[in-house]
Every structure is written in C-alpha cells, then in structure tokens.
Amino acid sequence: MGFFGDRFKSKDSKEKEDNAGKELAIIVLSYCEDKVINKFIVPPLNEKDFKRFKFGIAVVNIIMATWVLNIFIKDHKLVKDIIDSMHFNYNRMFDEIFTGDIHVGDIIVDKKEFIYLQKDWGIEGVSQRTGTSYGTLLQTIYPYRQAHYIEALEEELDIIIKGPEVYPNKILMLRVARKLCYHVAGNEEMPCSISVAFLLISIFMQLTDYCKKICH
C-alpha cells in the first residue's frame, strides 16, 4: 500500500506519465555529474574509484527510483507507465553519458560479480581485462545489484517508519551506502561512506518529493 494517493489528472495522462518518467531519469542521472559527486563525497575518490562510483551511483539511483515509485504510489498502472518511460529515457541518457569500450575490471571489483558475469555471458574466465561496454555491463549487473540494494532499502524503510525512538543515532541510507562502497572498492567501510549516505539521502528526498508532485 502506498503512502501517497493515486490521483493523477486524466487529461493527457499518457503525455504526463511520459514526462514524469523523463524527468525522473534526469534526476537519477544528474547525480552522476562529476561536480555533484565532488561536492558530496569526502574525502575525494581516486581516479579508479571515481570511475566505479560514477557507474555505481547511476545503477543504485535507478534501482532506488523504481523502488520509491513502487512503494509510495499505489496506482499500479500509473507506476508501470512511469517506470517504463523512466527506464526508456534512462537507458538513452546513460548511453550518452557513459561512452566507449571498457574492461570489466575498470568497474567491477567484487569476485562474486565476476562469477555472475561469467555465468550470464556464458564465458569462462571473465577477468579484469575482459572487454565490454558500459551499456552491456549495466544491463547485466543491474539485476544482481538490484537484489542487494532492495534489501538495504527495505531496512531503511523500517527505520523511516519507526523513527529515531526505535532507531536512535541511525544514519539514513548508510546500509545502501556501504553496499555501494563495496561495489566501488570491495570495502564497505570506505572513509567516504558517511558522505555517500548523505548523497543518497539527497537523492531519496528528491525522488519522494517528485512522487508527491505526481500524486497531487
């Protein structure tokens, strides 16, 4: 059951849903801009980690946006139409931002993700030097990371609902941040993990505010 209403003006609803999806895709990918990452993340990331983080935040953001829409809006048809538009526009914009061929090791550090890629691609011995593209890697790794991030987001939702009385001194989005840090550097306790959490809070608040705008 969603927290927000399911009201959405019927006039030109298809166009409104398409526009909502496009605007959400823009929100999601705006946090991949170098200046935004540099503004939030302290201490600064080295070149390799920055490249992985930029890809990683693009992945976690679209997963979070999809989750937020499903959680906070209870009109299932409306949600589906907006998500379809959001994913379509996201994939198009992603390909414009993340260009060129890469090696798997440029982005992936988790040994379990190497095994996952190997099974999905049907290629033995996927290694750091295996060539691919950002788009191919996104489509492959998305469902694997989605399961990890959704689990963490559900834990965060429990904290949001029950509040500081039940969870005193808890930093929101820290669980999601730690999973992202692990995907970036193989270490959940990166020095910048707290600032990553604040970045994710900013994204979460913007997404939930937009859901309210859709419903009212």
Which characteristics define this entry?
216 residues; mainly alpha; two-stranded antiparallel sheet; 8 helices; 69% helix; disordered N terminus
Structure write-up:
The chain is mostly helical. The chain has one domain (13-100, 144-215). It contains eight helices and two strands. It has a two-stranded antiparallel ribbon with strand order 1-2. The relative contact order is 0.16.
Furnish the topology, listing elements before pairings.
Layout: H1 13-30, H2 34-40, H3 47-72, H4 76-97, E1 101-103, H5 111-121, E2 131-133, H6 134-162, H7 174-185, H8 193-215
Helix pairs in contact: 1-3, 1-4, 1-8, 3-4, 3-6, 3-7, 3-8, 6-7, 7-8
* Separate helix tally: 8
Mean pLDDT across every amino acid position? 89
Largest sheet: 2 strands, antiparallel
E-strand count:
2
User: Helix/strand-derived class?
Assistant: mainly alpha
The percentage helix is 55-70%
Spatial order of strands in the largest sheet: 1-2
How would you summarize this macromolecular structure in one to three sentences?
The chain is mainly α and 216 residues long. Helix content is 69%, strand content 3%. It is built from 8 helices and 2 strands; from the N terminus they run ααααβαβααα.
